[in-house]
Amino acid sequence: MPVRFLGQDVECLVDTGAAYTALSADLVALLGLPIDLHRTATIATAHDTMRTVPRIMLPEVRIGGMQVRKVDMLVLTFPPALRLEGVVGMNVLRHFRMTLESDTGTLILRRLGSGRT
Questions:
Q1: Residue 117 within a domain
Q2: Could you tell me the residue range of the domain that residue 23 belongs to?
Q3: What are the start-end ranges of the H helices in the chain?
Q4: SS3 track for 23-51
Q5: pLDDT in tens, 38-71
Q6: How far is it, in rounded angstroms, from Cα 107 to Cα 91?
Q7: Nearest in space to 10 (alpha carbons), one of 65, 81, 83, 102
Q8: Which residues contact 83 (CB under 8 A, 6 or more apart)?
Q9: Deepest in the core among 47, 68, 102, 115, taking most CB within 10 A?
Q10: Sorting pLDDT into bands at 50, 70 and 90, what band is 116?
Q11: CB 112 within 8 A of CB 96
């Protein structure tokens, strides 16, 4: 899914099993975002091991014409074989009603009426 972080368009993986949205350490460096090593989160990896990773706050994330403000994000190092720069997790997706059209492989996001986006 195309997502815009600080003016940079990035193809991201959508992961409804991920609590947080995450960016690659390389993309964080490219965007010039500072990392505070005292601001961290402990996460469980796919292999059931615990890892402490940096957290950053982005003022906004844009998906299509919609935005989510003040997004807490993790900084991860993804395996090179995945060729990933970002993962969109539930802390962003919870702001939308999601519909997956399996026949076309299309994810449709609609803004929720609650004004949280």
A1: no
A2: 2-111
A3: 25-30, 90-93
A4: EEHHHHHHCCCCCCCCCEEEEECCCCCEE
A5: 999 998 877 778 989 999 999 999 998 899 999 9
A6: 17
A7: 83
A8: none
A9: 68
A10: very low
A11: yes
Q: CA 43, CA 40: separation in Å to the nearest integer?
A: 10
Q: Is the pLDDT of residue 20 over 60?
A: yes
Pair of tokens at residue 54: 């940096």
Work out the burial of residue 61: count CB atoms within 10 Å of its CB; fewer than 13 is exposed, 13-18 middle, 19 or more buried: buried
**Residue at token pair 């403000």:** 69
Number of domains forming the structure of the chain: 1
Question: Can you give the pLDDT at residue 53?
Answer: 94
The larger pLDDT score, comparing residue 97 to residue 64, is at 97
Residue 76 has what pLDDT?
A: 94
Domain CATH for 103: 2.40.70.10
SS3 content of the chain, % helix, strand, coil (to 5): 10, 50, 40
